[in-house]
Amino acid sequence: MIRGGSVPDRPSASVISSRAVSTPVTGTFAYRVRPATPADAEAICRIYNQGIEDRVATLETELRTPDERRQWLTNRSPRYPVIVAEAEPASTSVRPPSEQASLTDPATTDPGSRLSQATLGGRGLTDPATTVGWGSLNVFNAREAYRFVADFSVYVERAWRGKGVGRALLARLIELGREHGFHKLALSAFPTNAGGVALYERMGFRTVGVYREQGQLDGRWVDTIIMEKLL
After folding, report:
1. Of 177, 165, 187, which is closest to residue 87 (Cα–Cα)?
2. How far apart are CA 155 and CA 175, in angstroms?
3. Binning pLDDT at 50, 70 and 90, where does residue 231 land?
4. Tens digit of each residue's pLDDT (9 = 90 or more) over 76-124
């Protein structure tokens, strides 16, 4: 899971593109990135709560509900879109490579046989399209002077982290930032989130600095790293 941006749930503020983007990935699956709809609220909620529980990408500690996420989607301005990534079969399965050879169900199958419908967060890994991540552009600062700067969020389903989902989402968010007239994307992340920081650097973000002891998480102070990319 990768998280960029400092506050994922600030009120958001002209039109999200309806274009879906398919991103080929080496292996047996590809990702389709598309605009989120209210029907995605449950998947977005599940993946966001995983990020909150894992304590690796956000200072948020309050778990969300599907109804709250649905309202969050409904209330957003079109200038601050939300997108989801779906894993689509490029051959025969959308199961992550690490799980393709190991998923068996000893209670219902013969020893050594694979699950015909393995479950990932409540959805089958062999579904035609499985939601594996989401991202959003967010208000950086409500003051008029900052209207050309956005921050962003990217969250990836646990079993799909490190498999290119975050890169596909971030690439689309950068495109959307340009399409919506933003001049810069900014983010705040944990320095300990090495995978996320490495991705940001590969995607052209530079480190501005580090806020020392910027917030408390589970009773301990944590630092946050600030990065930016001019569009």
Report:
1. 165
2. 18
3. very high
4. 999 999 999 999 765 544 454 444 433 323 333 333 322 222 233 334 4
Alpha-carbon distance of 151 to 140, in angstroms, equals 5
Report the distance separating Cα 169 and Cα 174, nearest Å: 9
- Segment 142-170 shows an average pLDDT of 96
User: What whole-number percentage of the chain has pLDDT above 90?
Assistant: 66
Closest of 144, 198, 209 to residue 2, by C-alpha: 198
66-70, 95-99, 115-119, 160-164 — most confident range: 66-70
What CATH number belongs to 21-230? 3.40.630.30
C-alpha–C-alpha distance, residues 117 and 106, integer Å: 14
Read off the tokens for 198: 């490495």
Q: Which residues, in sequence order, are bridge partners of residue 130?
A: 87
Residue whose pair of structure tokens reads 């109804």 in the numeric block: 67
Helix (H, G, I), strand (E, B) or coil at 163: coil
Considering Cα of 202, then 195, then 137, then 33, what sign does the dihedral take?
positive
What's this model's pTM, rounded to 2 decimal places? 0.75
DSSP state of 201: H
Neighbour-count burial for 113-142, b at 16+ CB within 10 Å, e otherwise:
ebbeebebbebebbbebbbbbbbbbbbbee
| In the chain, domain spans | 21-230
Torsion of CA 176, 41, 95, 167, to 10 degrees: 20
